[in-house]
Write a structure and sequence with these properties.
By secondary structure, the protein is mostly helical. The chain is built from 7 helices and no strands. It has a single domain, classed as LemA-like domain (de novo design (two linked rop proteins)), CATH 1.20.1440.20.
Length: about 190
């Protein structure tokens, strides 16, 4: 009987150890996947910053090209410069995304006004800069989608069982998604006028 009892104790201990190891592996897997999601959000944010910086670096060139043709459109050019400066002074990701959105609007205004200047539209440098900036805007829009998708998955995971246990231990909080609504647009316009 003692052999059977010893075998039962050994089997129980082995099963307990295996369950403990399985729980550790499960917790590590959750931890790693949450870290991956967090890094994806940071990467998406950094990618947006890189592309936005490239676009903002092109803005002074575009404004200079336009100045020679748009002598009576100082307000439009100033809106573009103000939007660019608003971005440069933004510190947080959401502020940068809003500033980027403001620049989109200012550039659309500039491109609309440029329609009144056929000589400008015929300028090779203007056309190159317009295509370059538009291409960067498209890439930024793609990165915004990836950012929002990553944030959505992250926010869902940190609320789900059993991930919530690890997320609470790591003090993870929900991330803000990029969204541009009418109220934010008005706030951006007010900031640009300051």
């Amino acid at each position: 009987m003692s052999i059977i009892l010893s075998a039962a104790i050994l089997l129980t201990a082995l099963i307990s150890v295996l369950i403990f190891i399985a729980l550790i592996v499960f917790a590590v897997n959750i931890y790693n996947s949450l870290i991956t999601l967090k890094i994806n959000i940071e990467r998406a944010s950094s990618n947006i910053d890189v592309l936005t910086k490239q676009r903002f670096d092109e803005i002074p060139n575009l404004v200079e090209v336009c100045k020679g043709y748009m002598r009576h459109e100082a307000k439009t050019l100033q809106e573009v410069v103000s939007a660019r400066n608003f971005f440069l002074n933004s510190k947080e990701t959401v502020q940068k995304l809003r500033a980027d959105f403001a620049l989109d609007g200012a550039l659309k205004g500039l491109y609309a006004v440029s329609e009144n200047y056929p000589e400008l539209k015929a300028n090779d440098e203007f056309m190159y800069l317009q295509k370059r900036i538009t291409g960067l805007e498209n890439a930024i829009a793609d990165r915004r989608e990836f950012y929002n998708a990553s944030v959505a998955v992250f926010n869902s995971r940190i609320k789900q069982i059993p991930d919530i246990v690890i997320a609470n231990f790591l003090k993870y909080e929900e991330k803000d998604m990029f969204k541009a609504d009418a109220q934010e647009n008005r706030q951006v316009e007010i900031l640009l006028k300051q």
